[in-house]
Records
---
Amino acid sequence: MSKEILVEVGKYRVASNPTILKSIGIGSCLSIILYEPDKRIGGMIHAMLPYYGEGRDKHNPIKYVDTSIYILLDDLLRMGAKKEKIIAKIAGGSQMFSFLGSDIMNVGERNIKAAKETLKKEKIRLKSEETGGNCGRTVILDMVTGGLTIRKVSENIEQNI
Amino acid sequence: MNEEKSINYERIANLTDIQKDALREIGNIGAAHAATALSSMLKETIMIDVTSSHIIGIEDMQNELFGDPSDKVAGVFMQVTGSGTHNLLMLFPFENTLQLVDMFFKRPIGTSTELSSKDESAINEIGNVCACAYLNAMSDLLGITLFPTVPGLAVDMLGAVLQFPVLEIGRRVDYVIIIQTQFIRNADRFNGYFLFMPDDDVQKAIMDKFKINVK
């Protein structure tokens, strides 16, 4: 069995084959995966908020979607990944509580938007996503295949993207 | 991030026994009000026992509460306005949620294995009634005005349910008051948690009330 590494809230991990990266219980947070299939290296981010520029805490850039993508990308390039080969997958960005129309409630949606913007800017292809809705997700990245498995409590199902 | 956490720990570590008792007392008063409200709603005697009451850093909520972020829970979340904007989350482990709705609909405890939409409304209402009673107690005690807003319900993984409060409220608030309770009906006991996340105004009112010096 491959070694399993847990990626906690506000953290990221880089790994090479054969390793499994896992984040449990993603709600409005966003899990961002960058993977280079030739080298079989990649990383998983568990980001909390959309933009570093808006954040109160400046000590941890991994908390934010935009800055965390730059940092993970830089790590992968240093490890020898070819930028044009890197693909991205994102999961999460839910709205867990359905009520009110207040704009502070849509942090999940803003996280998704921030990720798409940043990936576009860096010309990284977003291969697949499993985002939005109102459910929590556990995500598991298998470094051998680059396959991302999503588990949901609400539907008791597992899917691969 | 580590810096923020160490401040929180320091605050908590600095509380004297008397101050901890004071916090516990806030929990007791709130729970007593909630029990009365719930009893009159269900037309039978429900008691709410406060098993512990303490303050922790908002980012430590998950570990402090149950530990496993994949545990299934029900959360009733409401924003509180009046003096400032605050947040209140009532959290029930899924097992206990089922038992509470059985109690609500006067079914034998253990009947439910899943929540129907009617059950979800019931748990939302139980959360709502308890939260309002708790807020009344707080506003009487502290002499401030607190208005509840319409509650929202989420039934999902603990990690996912806690993320919203941690994210949005965490931008303004550093700590959360956790009151761990047990709902008691005859010999049955169910766990429930009140998580009150007051913003600066109320934090200060609480600290002043109990003469707790922060930093």
---
Amino acid sequence: MKKTVTANISGIVFHIDEDAYEKLNNYLGNVRSHFSDDESGNEILSDIESRIAEMLQDKISSSKQVVTIQDIDVIISQLGQPGQMKDEDPDPGTGQQKESPKTEKTSKRLYRDPDNQMLSGVCGGIGAYFNVDPTWIRIAFILLTLLYSSGIIAYIILWIVVPKARTTAEKLEMRGEKVNISNIEKSFKEEMEGVKTNIDNLSKEAGEKFKKKRNDEEASNTLANILGALLKAIGIILGIALVMAGLFMMVTIIISFIAPGVEPFSYFLRVPYLLQDIIQPGWLSAIAFTGLLLTIVIPVIGLIYLGAKLIFDINSKSGSLPIILVLLWVLGIIVFVLAVIKSVVLI
Amino acid sequence: MNLENTKAQMRKGVLELCILSLLAGKEAYASEIIEKLKARKLLVVEGTIYPLLTRLKNDGLLSYRWEESTGGPPRKYYKITPLGETVLSELKKSWSNLVESVNKLTENNKN
């Protein structure tokens, strides 16, 4: 048994196997991007589509009502790949001139890589920019964090400042590859492959969600709706309060750490000030300092994160952020305790 | 050397002449043109024809009208224009010159 989709091709309705549809859609996408710089590209595409509709009509009958992937393969081999289709340039000279500035324009840009992300894709993007395995970049950031948390601060700044690579062209730019049709085609194909492997999980998930939604709908009534809206409003207000409190605490902590003696912030947090008395200045105190900062700052980040979640979308997936926060927190405690013990022993 | 590529280039060059000749005196839609070209092994992949037809139409050598078909999508019937006729006769002339010259050259080299 196979799932089919219906598709409107040139005004005719076809039942197509899902995999066949995927393939045809991919093919038409390639043809479209191939003719995208041609002003009559749309016309050519619709001519080709109507030819496909014609050929598909020949392939189906009352005993075979569904278009299969074999049909699509035959049609594609009959029509040819987009690269074979291009009408010759009226003047070959101009054609080459058109190509060259495009290839020269190749420049790398720093993006966040959504295909290679643990948290936000900052490290993936930097890795792509310098052509290094992102894991090394991640290790570098963690090591930098041991130096007065500069890693975390740099990371957050990059997260805010560096844009995410959304389109295929941007992803190519990120890797420093030429933005031309064959490359876009290539990376599109790679993406499609990834999509295919995920499609089973996805459809399963969608099915479950749909079922759940239906149950929800059956159970819902106006009272529940009102109650839900009220709860949501309370959640948002609570979220805003959490975020604001978290941000205030953050500022206080940072200032008390940078300048431990400054009034009035030192009233809020005397710990770093006291720490200076216990531990002799030097590399150990720097490490203890960082450990302590992590231990205190991370719960605050968690608070802001929780608040943000309450404001925007409670049901969204958390990803790996909470786990990373907890790990960093534990790391901070261990580093702090070890550094303090070590310095006491040294004294 | 890529033999298939050279052959394809040769065919591509004369495709315009072939399409104009096919449409001279008789209108046809894309699939009919494709069938005829394929029967004579002048066309390998069908996709080539669409950009070509569109360009000939944009250059004013062809015109077209829509016609409903039974069951299938509406068809574009192409027709040659007076300008197309002039271009066709020019192309025919240069084609026969070309064939003659090429034949002479290849024959001479044989001997």
